[in-house]
Amino acid sequence: AKDLGRNRFHYFTASMQEEARYRMILIRDLRQAVNKKEFEIFYQPIIDLSTGEMHKAEALIRWHHPERGMVSPSEFIPVAEDTGLIIDIGNWVFSQAAKQSAHWRDKFGVEIQISINKSPIQFRDEGDSFEDWIVQLKDLNLASNSICVEITEGLLLDASMGVSEKLLAYRDAGIQVSLDDFGTGYSSLAYLKKFDIDYLKIDQSFTRNLESDTDDVTLCEAIIVMAHKLGMMVIAEGVETEYQKNLLAKAGCDYGQGYLFSRPIPAADFEQKYIRAIAE
Ligand code: C2E
Ligand code: CA
Ligand code: CA
Ligand code: CA
């Protein structure tokens, strides 16, 4: 953690030259990390606000750097996107999540839906292995709704990637789609209808100020009503307090995710804390 702090300090104060050097090292290390299996998936529960039950979780990648310790995805995902490494990383995340889901089903008879984050760069990739994903699910004997794909608003604006075709193919295959960080991007409401999204995830910047900002309360309530009218379910991100949870539940929000319930935790911990509990 100390090393990470030092690097961060460098990163923000360094000259452009140093910054470029830091970035090159990060790229080199990231390239090796893919081969050396330095990544791990953490799982964060997504809670049904009307029952308190957990049937969903989000897979969030972690990088254990041999010297720097844990590197945050906010730091390395953008670099992975710039270099194209996100393709391999993204496919790895998918495979891990699918295998994990099958494992929990086989061991405990528990079926949960795991959400994975799919970068626009993956969509843009010509060899985007969507069909391969379907094959993997079949091989594991998993229902296609065992996996949910989280996309961001920016993707919906980019018609060049054949996004609508791909999202239609997802629907045909039974894979559900969530719109992540809703409210922070620029997508028009018309897109929501057009793309047949299953879940809207209210960004944590709205959840955060529910206690103090009545405008944010109004916004959340309006988003929930609109989403339901368009046939979508709503997941609130960044739920940290009972107050926020109760307010969201009262407004009809379907699911909550956040530190109030649990931080993202390793698979073994998630199994201990959540999967076994359901199995019993
Ligand atoms: P995201 O998809 O919006 O994920 C939610 C982030 O909010 C996670 O940060 C999570 O740990 C954090 N979070 C959850 N609950 C709370 C809360 O109550 N309060 C606060 N303050 N934060 C909360 P994390 O794990 O650091 O990931 C950051 C971002 O990195 C993600 O944001 C996502 O955009 C990206 N990311 C993570 N894993 C992957 C991945 O496998 N593939 C891709 N393409 N992106 C990923
Ligand atoms: Ca997400
Ligand atoms: Ca989010
Ligand atoms: Ca995000």
UniProtKB/TrEMBL annotation:
<protein>
    <submittedName>
        <fullName>EAL domain-containing protein</fullName>
    </submittedName>
</protein>
<feature type="domain" description="EAL">
    <location>
        <begin position="23"/>
        <end position="278"/>
    </location>
</feature>
